[in-house]
Records
---
Amino acid sequence: MTVSRVMVFALALTALVLAAPTGRAGPQPGFAVGPRPEWVVSAAPAPDQPGPGEAAANGLRDLVFEHQVRLGAHRSETYVRRVVQVTNESGLQAASQLNIEFDPSFQKLTIHQVIVRRAGQVLERLDRDAIHLVQREKDLDAQIYDGRLSAVLFLQDVRVGDIVESAFTISGSAMMSSSFLSRSIEARMVWKLVSMPPSQRLLT
């Protein structure tokens, strides 16, 4: 093979390598990382050191649960913020995994914050590249799938005593049931808010 042919072959091979896919996943449909919506009403911050005697279940103590909904004529937005403390080793697995279910066919998920508070430090744990979308199985035997996905994020280095805080918004269909108002959760602070046009009303 002559020198000129070797050079042409090398250039062609280099072009193929540069044009090949890198394997990095592109933006996921219906999923994003972004700031909290401006319409969300700020609630009291989570305590760095919760008081003694508060109820804890399965190694987790719920400190704050926020659920705010904004209803429009054709669209709704649901903001959720949860703050939990790991009280013993049995709660480490649950606290180390963020799992948010949504249906990308009519909903969009935006994750705003995932942090760990430890001894006065605030440790950022929201890594978009580490979030995986998992298909939800409806019927394993019949191999039937619905349209829901789970956005899953595994948090690294969560310890007993840590306070884990997460916040996200799901936007989509404007339909919402009044059962939202009666939903119960045991937490030190529960914050629920619904805003809607005067002509809109909850479905019962």
---
Amino acid sequence: MKSNYPRALIHHLGFPARRIGRASLAPLLHQCGHQVDFFDSLEALLCANRVRKSDCLLLSLPSRSAIDEALVPVLRFDSNWPVICISRKVQLATVVAAMKLGAFHFLLETTPPGELMEVLEEAFAHSRKRQENEQRQLDIQARYEQLTNREREVFHLLITGQPTREIATQLQLAIQTVKIHRARVLAKMGAGSAIELLRFAQILHPPGS
């Protein structure tokens, strides 16, 4: 089975050795080019993820109490971590509670390997997108930090849509000086227009953040 996301890292906490257990899961994932690490304790899992974050987590939920014992601290550690919950049987209250908390998906232990791999592919895509967004935010933040205090003032006025003349009046600067600052802001931020600066500002400070 070919994966669209080779060499993904999967972490697995407390997964019972049943139909999709450790004995069959590891060869299946290795065959697809992935690495899977098994953990028996939450502490060991979180410690490993401080070193290298996995692309997704398979989390066994043997009971409703496991949500408080494992899922809650896992999502507190990283609310965007794609967590696929696995249970021996469907308990609607458990499924609802897990999904409300932010679990990525919920599967049965008897889920066929093919279906499991499809869900994992979705989780990998989610993880890759998150990583790309995080890197983009870091890149934009690094560019923003290169701006001088005056350039940051111009930046924030530009993204409100104010024209050069109004910015000059507000900052008590000559129009030509504002034009120079504007050009420097665009160059340092790698933007082609004030509209693109606005997009960068939204990435740095998403609405509701």
---
Amino acid sequence: MRTKKDQLFEYVMKVNDENLTALNIALLQRNKTIVKLLLNACKKEQLIEHLMKEIDEKKYTVLHFASLKGHEEIIKLLLGIFSEEDDKDKLIEFVMKEDENRYTALHHAYGKGHKEIVTLLLKPFNEKIRKNLIEYVMNEKWTVLHEASFKGPEEIVKLLKNEWMFSYENKCNMK
């Protein structure tokens, strides 16, 4: 027998003609009050599974959209869902989920010059994981450093360089 919370989740996650749920719409509209209300109506496992899904033909997740648009408060809410230690693997998967161009939320945040979003996306992770995330986005043919250099947000280039250099120096010092 389904619980009332399961029934509410199904209702909250019902999609419209554009394949968007009420939660997707509230997230895209940056309506923190409604987002919090809808997040509290869902079981954590169901919510994490939903957030991993793509919501458009470009294979964007809500995190891709929030990173592109610089929606700092929404990203804090989204990352807060993964607060338990045993959620870290899912959080890495969420942050590093790729769109159709193989861009992650980190790529989008770097490319748009959203320094505070980049910092938020890296903050939950320890140094080793941050280093791996940075190396991943830097090992593409057209890296986030290329993107940031091309578009000109100087602060992002500095942040990326400093984060990478910090990881590289620590790697060298550990030998």
---
Amino acid sequence: MPDYRSRTRPLCREELPRIRASLVPLLIVLAPQVALSALQLGVPVLAPAVIAAMGLPPEAVGALAGTMGLGAVWLFAANRGVTPVLGPWRALVSACLLSVAGAALVLSGIWVAALVGAATIGFGYAVTAPAGSQFLSAHTPRRLWGTLFSIRQSGVPAGGRAGRAARRRAGGGL
């Protein structure tokens, strides 16, 4: 069994400014991760109320959630034409703007617009992982990658919790 203690060393004072400087890039990628995860995971939670307001049958919730998942999968597959072209920062900003527009379309009360909005939210969500990873790796010391990438990825369940809290605030329980 390898002894990992021999490879690690305690932090020294000279490294603290560099570590503090790594927190800004972490927050830059963590905020969209949490927000877009909240949208991606929150829309299906809020969908029964939205679908009922449109006068559609309850099974339309699955179509809305499925369309959002399809949008995410499609962009995961096509991402090589997005993040490398825009760069990680512009890709993250674009993802946030797309997702907000998608949420507005979901809440429009028009079924076709809601489906387009759901796919758009999926597009935005799919950008956060590759663009966030690329941004974080370019702006943080390699030594901190494990910790910072783990914290960034914890934004997904934090966003899910935020989506669940939105349902609770809307009076839906859970």
